[in-house]
Amino acid sequence: MRPKNRESDRCPICGRHCSVYDRSSIIRSWRALDFAGILVYINAYTQRIRCPKHGVLVAAVPWAFHDSGFTKSFDLTATWMAENLSRSAVAEYLRIDWKTVARCITRARKYIEPDPGKRLDNLVNIGIDETSYRKGHKYITVIVNHDTNTVVWASNKHGKEIFSKFLESLTPEQRASIKVVTGDGARWIDQCIEEYLPNCARCVDSFHVVEWANEALDALRKEAWRDAHQELKELKKTVKRKRGRGALKDKDSIAVHKAEEKAAEIKGSAYALGKAPEHLTNKQETQLAEIAVSNKRLYRGYLLKEQLRLILHMDDADEAKEELDRFFWRATHSRIDEFKELGHKIRRHEEHILNTIRLKMSNARIESTNNKIKLIIRRAFGFRDVESMIDMIMLVCSNIKVPLPNRPIAEPEN
Ligand SMILES: [Zn+2]
Question: On the CB side of 315, how many CA atoms lie within 13 Å of its CA?
Answer without folding.
Answer: 0
